[in-house]
Each structure stands twice: as C-alpha cells, then as structure tokens.
Design a protein that fits this description.
3 helices, two-stranded antiparallel ribbon, Rossmann fold, 7 strands, 131 residues, single chain, alpha/beta
C-alpha cells in the first residue's frame, strides 16, 4: 500500500492524483507554478470527478507553498470544491503556509491522526488530490 492509498484508506475517502504533464492519457487542465529557479506544471483530468465533488488536497511536504497552491487552484478550476488542505510535514521556516493564503488554511500533520476525531472526517464523501 502506498502512502497515497494508505492516507485515503485511513480517511475513508477516494483518491485522485494530480500529476506532472505527460502522465495522464485523456484531456487535462494544467496549472503552472513558480519554483526557485524555474516553473513547473501540474495537470488533472477534469472529467475524473463530477462537478461539485469535495476534494481534500494532501501533500507530503509543505515547503514554499507553490505546489500546494497550484493544486488548490487546479482543483477549483476543475469545478470541484476544496474540502480541506493538509500536509504530512511542514518546513515552517520556508513560509509555505503563508504563501498558501487564508482561503483554505493548511492543516498540518492531521493525516496520521485518528480520522474519527479529525475535521477531515467531515469530508467523508470527498476525493483526495495527491500531489
């Protein structure tokens, strides 16, 4: 079991993976974001979920916030609703949480906790977007 599927299983929700370009077979939406010395792109197949689906955006590491912010924008552009944003590990000295803004606050370290007591349990009918 990968960490992606393990987290989805623990939360009792489905899983959708946000990928780098060239990895998905059907039409995609893309979102560019800045890295320290270049730009990168994330893609998703917008027809994978019905419009209005609730999505928990989960990333393994929050550093500068660029990847996580791009994933949130991509979820919203796909017609889905961001149910929450969470990370497994936050490098707080890099200021990524601030870069992600306040519209969808980052909830670090919640994935490994008991999902019955987690606010993410409210997103039980959500799909997880793994970056």
């Amino acid at each position: 079991m990968t960490r992606d599927s393990a987290a989805a299983y623990a939360l009792g929700i489905g899983m959708l993976i946000v990928r780098k370009p060239g990895k998905l077979p059907r039409a995609v939406l893309s979102e560019d974001y800045a890295l320290e010395y270049r730009t990168a792109t994330l893609v998703v197949q917008p027809d994978d979920l019905p419009a209005g689906s609730r999505v928990l955006v989960l990333d393994d590491v929050l550093a500068t916030g660029g990847t996580l912010s791009a994933a949130v924008r991509l979820v919203e552009r796909s017609g889905w609703v961001v149910a929450g944003v969470s990370v497994v590990l936050e490098l707080s000295e890099l200021g990524g949480r601030g870069a992600c803004g306040t519209r969808h606050p980052v909830d670090p370290h919640r994935v490994g906790q008991n999902s019955r007591n987690s606010r993410h349990r409210r997103a039980a009918n959500s799909t997880r977007a793994e970056i």
